[in-house]
Amino acid sequence: MSSNDQKTNQQWGGRFNEPTDAFVARFTASIDFDKRLYAQDIRGSQAHARMLNKVGVLNEDELQSILQGLEQIQGEIERGEIEWSVELEDIHMNIEARLTDRIGITGKKLHTGRSRNDQVATDIRLYLRDEIDFLLGEITRLQRGLLTVAEREAKTIMPGFTHLQTAQPVTFGHHLMAWFEMLQRDFSRLRDCRTRMNQSPLGAAALAGTTYPIDRIYSAQLMGFDGPTANSLDSVSDRDFAIEFCAAASMIMNHLSRMSEELVLWTSAQFDFIDLPDRFCTGSSIMPQKKNPDVPELVRGKGGRVTGHLISLLTLMKSQPLAYNKDNQEDKEPLFDTVDTPKGCLRAYADMVPAIHSKADNMREAARRGFSTATDLADYLVRQGMPFRDAHEVVGKAVAFGIKNKLDLSDMSLDQLQQFSTTIGTDVFDVLTLEGSVNARDHIGGTAPRQVLLAVANAREDLEKRASET
Ligand code: ARG
Fold this sequence. Notes:
Blueprint: H1 22-28, H2 31-34, H3 38-54, H4 60-78, H5 91-103, H6 116-152, E1 157-162, E2 165-171, H7 172-197, H8 216-222, H9 232-237, H10 240-267, E3 274-275, H11 294-317, H12 332-352, E4 357-358, H13 360-368, H14 374-383, H15 388-405, H16 414-418, H17 428-432, H18 434-440, H19 449-469
Antiparallel strand pairs: 1-2, 3-4
Helix pairs in contact: 3-4, 3-6, 3-8, 4-5, 6-7, 6-12, 6-19, 7-10, 10-11, 10-12, 11-12, 14-15
The structure holds arginine.
Arginine binds near residues 117, 120, 328 and 329.
């Protein structure tokens, strides 16, 4: 209670002469959203209390009473029995006040040698670390699904595109393995980001460290961090680890969005390359014939919000002087959404991808149209001794002839082909077939079915290794 007897904040009201304006209290509070960090906040408090006991600041009875109190509070929160208070601003002070209500004066000792500044920096790291582990699992689940479909579709031929124009035949399995590779990099980006963030800021206190003989290595160990952060000012200030996470998440969303775009194209009547099961689609309230690929469309659409959050956090941080500033309270809502969005999208994809079925005949027919084996004909002429540029010219003329007469290269007779070069023999038809074309690209990273199956086998081994490491 302050001198003029009005009720001020019980945690920091000592120097205040009037209570906080009711709107300002709501405006500055973060409890509505940072309550999500309750488990991490309790975990951090448990580690802090144990450390204080180890260095002799808390005696054994005090420690036990704090630990028990925290455990009971966690139960209350999980059973939905806690009423959060806006007057207590945030999750840290809500839990601390609840602890003091429960265990009395000992509860007031928990905050010895720490500040909400190192506390919140610790909580977010613990939180993101858990969420990254979950996301890594979901990426792996999606990758496994891709391997199943890629193996099944290793020989399925489709047109490969550049500029969305038919370019060369590829196998559908090869296309899906391209998606797999994107996710490999997404996985390693997230893992790198986890490694860099896995340091404990606890003990940095408000900004300068603390006068108590704290053992930061011990509390870091208790929370599963690789060690303590090296500089107290930096520890309470920078949110680069969160920004890095948003960048990695944006990349995941970009990849999922690109996959979505292809699924949307492929399910259209114009392409008609694949079928998506009804359970991942919805209908139209007016057009009875419609089956819309809502899941891919939504995933594509949700990419924007994550990219937006990345920009928000970069902008939030860019002009902040050392050390902690209240601005940083604004990191949480974008960050939480940056966790939730890829979580939902990866889940939908991991469930949906194994159910993708190719319409192989349509894919094949599309690959046959559009002169997709023109490069193969040029390569054939090169093998007969013609310089590549000349071969390019010759095939260009053959294609022009085909367009005019509505004939694909493989539909032309030997006589017709020989108008363009007399070196063409009957063996040309081996290279003009779709199978000949894909089988010929039989090197690491090539589209030949043999290579696709090898890539799938290597990928499986990689995922096994990954599983044994965790
Ligand atoms: N709610 C605050 C946040 O999210 C916790 C740290 C507050 N520190 C302070 N000195 N006001 O950043």
